[in-house]
Design brief:
Blueprint: H1 7-27, H2 41-53, H3 55-58, E1 66-68, E2 77-88, E3 94-104, E4 110-112, H4 115-125, E5 128-129, H5 131-146, E6 150-159, H6 160-163, E7 175-182, H7 183-186, H8 188-202
Parallel strand pairs: 2-5
Antiparallel strand pairs: 1-4, 2-3, 3-6, 6-7
Helix pairs in contact: 1-2, 4-5
The structure holds guanosine-5'-triphosphate (GTP).
Guanosine-5'-triphosphate binds near residues 130, 132, 161, 162 and 166.
Subunit structure: Toroid-shaped homodecamer, composed of two pentamers of five dimers.
Pfam families: GTP_cyclohydroI
Pathway: Cofactor biosynthesis; 7,8-dihydroneopterin triphosphate biosynthesis; 7,8-dihydroneopterin triphosphate from GTP: step 1/1
């Protein structure tokens, strides 16, 4: 899912990408060599791609601090909204929204630090994505790391490929997708509890 780069590889990748972006701007007849606004744009955009928008591909997955579930807590925990920032794989336009994660821990298993859910969402968002795969990647990673009894990952997001171009949909138009694992996949009652908590946390219909 990710291939960490060392500092030398990162620098070389940014330089190589900048040369290609120069070429692209040349094709588009943007005079970046003389125009003061776009003079540094190839390097700027290359740096943004490697160090920001795609950084999840080039950085290790977040380190997870695990704690024993000492009290054997076995009820649903729901966390969110977690801000989602990603980039659509089709048109390379921003995706932004919120994630909610529901965890049904195993009484004899592990629980992880709350902030790690935000870090995991950030890690998988930082690459070119489609939303259906994003919820699954986040969920599968948490399931592999913590082996809970059940898990749900729900994202509600705006896709700027749909609002800012193409069909020019309303900026309020969102896509909601949820991935369920384990007992949350099988139990309608648990799903309803998760969705109710999402609504409370969102302060509106999530
Ligand atoms: N299912 C799904 N579709 C997405 C996602 N992000 C973008 N899309 C859609 O993917 C499609 C890509 O479409 P194409 O039809 O190949 O591209 P296009 O001809 O530029 O289409 P328009 O966007 O309709 O102008 C568009 O309908 C996008 O709205 C996503 O996360 N999930």
């Amino acid at each position: 899912m990710s291939t960490p780069l060392d500092a030398v590889e990162e620098k070389a990748m940014i330089a190589a990408a900048a040369r290609k972006i120069e070429e692209l701007l040349d094709v588009l007849r943007i005079d970046h060599r003389n125009d003061h606004n776009t003079r540094d744009t190839p390097h700027r955009v290359a740096k943004m791609l490697v160090k920001e928008l795609l950084r999840g591909r080039f950085a290790p997955a977040p380190k997870i601090t695990e704690f024993d579930n000492a009290e054997g807590f076995d009820h649903l925990i729901v966390t969110g909204p977690i801000t989602v920032r990603s980039t659509c794989a089709h048109h390379l336009m921003p995706i932004y929204g919120e994630a909610f994660i529901g965890i049904l821990p195993a009484a004899d298993g592990k629980i992880i630090g709350l902030s790690k859910y935000d870090r995991i969402v950030d890690h998988f968002g930082a690459r070119f994505q489609i939303q259906e795969e994003l919820v699954k990647q986040i969920g599968s990673f948490i399931v592999d790391m913590t082996k809970p009894r059940g898990l749900a990952v729900r994202i509600s997001a705006v896709h700027m490929c749909k609002t800012h171009r193409g069909v020019h949909a309303s900026h309020d138009s969102r896509m909601v997708s949820t991935a369920y694992f384990g007992e949350l996949q099988r139990s309608a009652e648990l799903k309803n509890e998760f969705l109710r908590e999402c609504q409370v946390l969102a302060g509106r219909s999530a």
